[in-house]
Amino acid sequence: MQNLLLLVNYGGPTLGREKEYLKRLFSDEVLFPFPKPLRVFLGNLIATIRWRETREILTSIGGKSPLLEQTLWQAKALAKLLKGWNVKVAMRYSHPLLEETLKNLKEVYRLVIFPLFPHYSFATYLTVEKVVKRLYPNAVFTQPFYNCEGFIKGWILQIEETLKEKKLSSPYLLFSAHSLPLYLVKKYRDPYPSQVEESAKLIAQSLSLSFKVSYQSGVGLLKWLSPSTEEAIKELASKGVRELVVVPISFTAENSETLQEIDQNYQELAKSLGIKHFVRVKIPYDHPLWIECFKENFLKALN
Predict the structure, then answer these.
(1) CATH of 2-146+287-302, one of 3.30.565.10, 3.30.470.30, 3.40.50.1400, 3.40.50.2300
(2) Angstrom distance (rounded) from CA 84 to CA 82
(3) Which residues of the chain carry a pLDDT beneath 50?
(4) Is the dihedral of CA 204, 205, 208, 210 positive or negative?
(5) pTM of the model
(6) Domain boundaries, the chain
């Protein structure tokens, strides 16, 4: 019998499996609370419409997202600190799939699920919980770590290193988190926006820098959390900000949203608006303080 810690991340598309990923994502019962036939239809429709665009995004970042590789690194780092525990990785919408991983588990004595999302949201924690509780109702979940000292300090040190390297004199921090449809935030009374804001405040206040929180990756005609990162960049440029430092606060590993949407799309937008220095802080996924934070969060779940 094994003690198993399962790190769960969102997942992402891979070349040749774009439709597969999009179908899973856009037919999720939590994200799209419609009758199953409608969800399946929606998933198939969006996959058919968007798979080419998704492939272009993957191609623009070298054909592969580093999300899985960096999450596996975190699992290995944690395994070294946790005696008597096996540490594995699963993804909600891509391989290794969470459902398949859980179904293939054998002789598990204790199972701890660690969603690698700093902030609680229906779109992350809740969709993972739905799957796990159906297959392993006695599994224990870790809590969000948006205000964990190691998580906050890891970002602070990474930002300080970036500012020093780029020799910026008057940087403005723009925290960019993944957006959510506004009606679902209200439906689930989601604490996500307030937790993102708290993380941003803790970091910015420690650095004594001005900051703003924005949300990226909203698509379609629905109203999403605001301001969007694009809107925020335009607003800050109009106010004379010329050194903009973007912090992808809701992510724990690099992915297409950071490497393509921020590093390419938003950087191009910022330059066109006269922002002289547009800098994106790399995610400190391998920082010792983050791994220590993960360890502490895991140990709290056991008590």
Answers:
(1) 3.40.50.1400
(2) 6
(3) none
(4) positive
(5) 0.96
(6) 2-146+287-302, 149-280
Domain boundaries 149-280, corresponding CATH code: 3.40.50.1400
pLDDT tens figures, 113-150: 999 999 999 999 999 999 999 999 999 999 999 999 99
Give pairs for 149-152: CB < 8 Å, separation 24+: 149/293, 150/289, 150/290, 150/291, 150/292, 150/293, 150/296, 151/118, 151/199, 151/289, 151/290, 151/293, 152/199, 152/202, 152/203, 152/206
> 149-280: same fold as 2-146+287-302?
yes
